[in-house]
């Protein structure tokens, strides 16, 4: 079971259309890791158990089968094509709703504390997953046991 977050692209009850406004019957929604062509799984429900096909084939009304797309806690790229693979749109660097808090950090202190809202799921520094022993959470404060690199992007994933 993956920890998942509702997608802002096609998330719940969305309908896709051709550029002329007709429902995108049989359209294809490809999902990749952000900035790449490496396939990235999406899920059919908030349980994070059943993956969608990739591409997701839209139904006759231009909707996602089952009506929902759920994402893991990484950035995605979506490519929307017609049923004959003519490009309609590309959306890159998409994250699920509520999946992250991003902080641009500049400094070199021995420890860094952040106020967080929600339950911390994972922490990444410059896109690298941090093992739980590199930080601690007490109440609403996340503290790193060793300061991040001088200039870093810190992503705090929480629910």
Give helix % range. Answer: under 10%
CA radius of gyration: 18 Å
Mean pLDDT, as a whole number? Answer: 85
Count of helical stretches: 0
Which series of helices and strands comes N to C?
EEEEEEEEEEEEE
The percent range for strand residues is 35-45%
Basic shape: elongated
Low-pLDDT runs of 5+ residues are none
What is the third-level CATH name, the topology of the largest domain? Answer: Tailspike Protein, Chain
User: Briefly, what CATH class of the largest domain?
Assistant: Mainly Beta
The CATH superfamily of the largest domain is known as Phage P22 tailspike-like, N-terminal domain
Keywords:
single chain; 159 residues; mainly beta; Tailspike Protein, Chain; 2 domains; 4-stranded antiparallel beta sheet; elongated
How would you describe this protein?
With 159 residues, the chain is an all-beta fold. It has 2 domains: 1-97, Tailspike Protein, Chain; 101-158, no CATH class. 0% of the residues lie in helices and 37% in strands. It has no helices and 13 strands. The strands form 4 sheets. It has a 4-stranded antiparallel beta sheet with strand order 3-2-5-6, with no helix packed on it. The chain is elongated. The two termini are 15 Å apart. The model has no long low-confidence stretch (mean pLDDT 85).
How would you sum up this structure in a few lines?
It contains no helices and 13 strands.
Topology (SSEs and partners):
Elements: E1 5-6, E2 28-33, E3 56-57, E4 70-71, E5 76-81, E6 87-94, E7 101-106, E8 113-115, E9 120-125, E10 128-129, E11 135-138, E12 141-144, E13 151-158
Antiparallel strand pairs: 1-4, 2-3, 2-5, 5-6, 7-13, 8-12, 9-10, 9-13, 11-12
């Amino acid at each position: 079971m993956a920890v998942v977050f509702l997608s802002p692209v096609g998330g719940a009850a969305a309908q896709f259309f051709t550029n002329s406004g007709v429902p995108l019957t049989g359209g294809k929604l490809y999902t990749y890791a952000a900035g790449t062509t490496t396939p990235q799984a999406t899920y059919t429900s908030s349980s994070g158990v059943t993956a969608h096909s990739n591409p997701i084939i839209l139904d006759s009304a231009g909707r996602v089968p089952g009506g929902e797309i759920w994402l893991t806690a990484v950035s995605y790229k979506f490519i929307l094509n017609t049923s004959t693979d003519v490009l309609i749109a590309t959306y890159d660097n998409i994250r699920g709703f509520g999946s992250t808090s991003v902080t641009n950090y500049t400094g070199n202190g021995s420890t860094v504390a952040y106020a967080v809202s929600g339950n911390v799921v994972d922490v990444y520094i410059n896109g690298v997953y941090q093992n739980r022993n590199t930080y601690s959470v007490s109440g609403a404060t996340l503290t790193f046991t060793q300061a991040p690199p001088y200039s870093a992007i810190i992503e705090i994933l929480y629910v």
